[in-house]
Design goal:
heterodimer, A: alpha/beta, Rossmann fold, 2 domains, 5-stranded parallel beta sheet, 5-stranded antiparallel beta sheet, 8 helices, 15 strands, 35% helix, 33% strand, B: alpha+beta, Heat Shock Protein 90, 5-stranded mixed beta sheet, two-stranded antiparallel ribbon, 66% helix
Chain lengths: 249, 351
């Protein structure tokens, strides 16, 4: 058996202690490190390249979900959570496993065995799992409070009221905000459903605009209008988008 | 229950009234009509008893007829019918009975025949009085019953509202605490035991408190400390707690668990969401006959707050309003990286 490299991510020291204790003395496990928030975790995952992470959902700075969102090449993930119905639903089929705190040593090893199977089979099950998970998260109608992006080793947390607009770019979307412009591997549909209740409007196939950022709407051509934003951007509307805008304003 | 008592009280009064009417009857027939004592007593009793019995029937007629649903015409029709029927049974019955008792004594029967109109008129007057009094009494009774019912309802509503407003142990807190205990049993059994005891005491208090009984600042602080001790174990050195309470205010009465949601909020937006060091400061002072309690926490200014803000706080405010029937008892002050809630708590006369 090859050694599994493990990273523990949890903001509560006793929660890390118990996992460390459960793992200690197992020659097949290498505990590569521990961290107490999502920002640290990004750094450590990049540096240490663990095979498996134990990830708490509720943490300062970045939640476990948000961390997962910005990891380009995520390792195997076992979520550890105290009480989170959402996590239970989302991960039932997808993540390697999820552990409800407090959990027994045997239960932890069950999760490790599953991870080992996936690691050894070398089929991209994990990746598939994560994609499914992402799709599942996308489907949920939960409102967004912030959008997380990554630029190299820098993590940017954008509160949605600081986002100006979102633009479709091939397989990605570009998020334009006070903090800069960032690519996200998401669909326009995803942002439209999650941000519509927060005052965003789709004015065009390729533009989703924060209504609070609109300065004025001006006639441009026969059927098109221009939306002027406070940030200086001028965006064209489609006929349907203009109709939507008129209804709202 | 209420109706029964009411009836029991009413019945002797009713009987007494009829006795008085019988006496008046007796006086009138002896003085005005020259009837003998014996005949007068018998007829007074017969007339009064029959009317009294009919009167009980009328009471129920009034009670169970839904007056609100009838218009004026229907009311008049109903009472015309019932008064005619009452007169027929009352006078007819008395007439027949007295005929039997007197052995159809010709002089007496003539007198009865001659005074029939006057007697029926007097009977109608009695009918009117009886029905009017019944209406008044029953109305009054209904009103009282409704009032009592409304009061009960109001109390129930109040209680259930308070129940939904009061702090409840959050599952997240509970399971994370249990996880810490699970961990401590291995790394530090003594600390684990301490935490189990703290958690138990804290839970016992949260489960048992009642809004009918005021707590004291001392008791509240004790349970806040239990809670904060637990959170401190969970977050290690990341949570610092500072407490400064003025001397001589520990016995101040306040609603139980009113501070808990504030401290919970402070912890949630502080240490739950802030990497590195966080603090919660609790202070209490007496100011112009009011107790002022302030709970301050720091938070990470870089991060937009996650959802779940405000409900705990607004529940505290609603509860304060319901308990003291006063508004503006809470004040929120937010700086760039601190959040403060100040509660003003009225004292009782002792303070």
């Amino acid at each position: 058996m090859t050694k599994i490299k493990v990273l523990i991510i949890d903001d509560e020291p006793p929660a890390r202690d118990i996992i460390r204790h459960y793992l200690s003395g197992d020659a097949d496990i290498e505990l590569a490190g521990e961290c107490e928030n999502g920002f640290e975790a990004i750094k450590m995952i990049n540096e240490l390249k663990p095979d498996l992470i134990f990830l708490d959902v509720q943490m300062p700075k970045l939640t476990g979900f948000e961390l997962l969102e910005i990891l380009p090449d995520p390792p195997q993930i076992v979520f550890t959570t105290a009480y989170d119905e959402f996590a239970i639903k989302a991960f039932e089929m997808n993540a390697v496993d999820y552990l409800l705190k407090p959990f027994a040593k045997a239960r932890l090893y069950q999760a490790i065995d599953r991870a080992r199977q996936r690691l050894e089979s070398k089929t991209p099950v994990v990746q598939q799992g994560i994609e499914e998970l992402r799709a599942k998260l996308d489907d949920s109608t939960e409102e967004l409070d912030r959008v997380v992006a990554r630029l190299g080793s820098k993590i940017i947390v954008m509160p949605i009221d600081k986002i100006w607009y979102i633009e479709a770019q091939d397989d990605y979307v570009m998020v334009y905000s006070e903090q800069g412009n960032y690519l996200k591997e998401k669909t326009m549909k995803y942002f439209e459903t999650h941000l519509a209740p927060k005052g965003f409007i789709r004015i065009h196939r390729s533009h989703l605009v924060n209504v609070a950022q609109i300065l004025s709407v001006e006639l441009y051509g026969k059927d098109t209008h221009l939306v002027m934003l406070k940030c200086g951007a001028k965006l064209k509307t489609s006929a349907e988008g203009y109709k939507r805008l008129r209804e709202l304003l | 229950m209420f109706t029964k008592l009411y009836h029991n009280k009413l019945l002797p009064v009713y009987a007494g009234a009829w006795l008085a009417i019988a006496v008046v009857h007796y006086i009138i027939v002896t003085t005005q009509l020259g009837v003998d004592d014996l005949f007068a007593i018998v007829e007074a009793l017969v007339f009064s008893t029959i009317f009294a019995l009919l009167g009980i029937g009328l009471w129920f007629l009034v009670k169970f007829s839904d007056t609100g649903k009838l218009n004026r015409q229907e009311m008049i029709l109903r009472h015309a019918t019932s008064s005619a029927l009452t007169m027929l049974i009352w006078f007819g019955g008395s007439y027949l009975l007295l005929g039997l008792i007197s052995g159809h004594e010709p002089g007496y029967m003539t007198m009865l025949n001659n005074t029939m109109v006057v007697r029926v008129l007097a009977g109608l007057l009695l009918y009117t009085v009886l029905v009017t009094v019944s209406y008044l009494l029953i109305n009054n009774q209904n009103l009282k019953e409704r009032k009592a019912r409304e009061e009960v309802l109001q109390n129930l509503l109040h209680e259930s509202e308070l129940n939904s407003l009061r702090a409840q142990i959050k599952p997240h807190f509970l399971f994370n605490s249990l996880n810490s205990i699970s961990s401590l049993t291995v790394t530090n059994p003594e600390k684990a035991q301490e935490m189990v005891i703290n958690l138990s005491e804290f839970m016992r208090y949260s489960l048992s408190f009642s809004d009918n009984k005021m707590s004291t600042l001392k008791q509240e602080l004790y349970h806040l400390r239990l809670y904060l001790e637990i959170e401190k174990v969970r977050f290690g050195g990341r949570l610092a707690v500072d407490e400064s309470i003025e001397d001589g205010i520990l016995d101040w009465p306040l609603p139980p668990m009113i501070l808990q949601p504030l401290v919970e909020n402070a912890v949630k937006h502080g240490v739950y969401d802030t990497p590195g060091q966080s603090f919660v400061k609790i202070s209490g002072v007496k100011n112009n006959g009011w107790l002022e309690i302030s709970v301050i926490n720091n938070f990470d200014p870089d991060l937009p707050s996650r959802k779940g803000t405000g409900t705990g706080l607004s529940n505290v405010m609603k509860r304060m309003q319901m308990v003291y029937n006063m508004t503006n008892l809470a004040k929120i002050t937010k700086t760039e990286n601190t959040f403060e809630v100040k509660l003003k708590i009225p004292g009782n006369d002792k303070n």
